[in-house]
């Protein structure tokens, strides 16, 4: 997870750096076109990141449910087992 966050951050930084470079090297008309495109791409990126986060949270919820079920099963099993007799 830590590596994937690092790669996502590096990728976003690379895209932002490239966009800034293009923006600085352009004329005024091209700058407005680039800004519109950058805004569009940023919105798409936000939606994609949101989907990934949502999927991750859903998977985490499933894992928590599984762990809770295993714990409940273990507790139930322990409660139904007779106590060992010591001599």
Structure description:
Helix 1 (2-24) runs antiparallel to helix 2. This protein has one domain. It is built from 2 helices and no strands. The protein has helices at 2-24, 28-80. By secondary structure, it is mostly helical.
Radius of gyration using CA atoms only = 26 Å
Largest sheet: none
Shape: rod-shaped
Strand content: under 5%
**Unreliable spans:** none
Tally the structural domains: 1
Structural class: mainly alpha
Give helix % range. Answer: over 70%
List SSEs in N-to-C order.
HH
Through-space gap between termini: 52 Å
pLDDT averaged residue by residue: 81
Number of helices: 2
Tell me the total number of β-strands.
0
Question: What attributes does this structure have?
Answer:
87 residues, mainly alpha
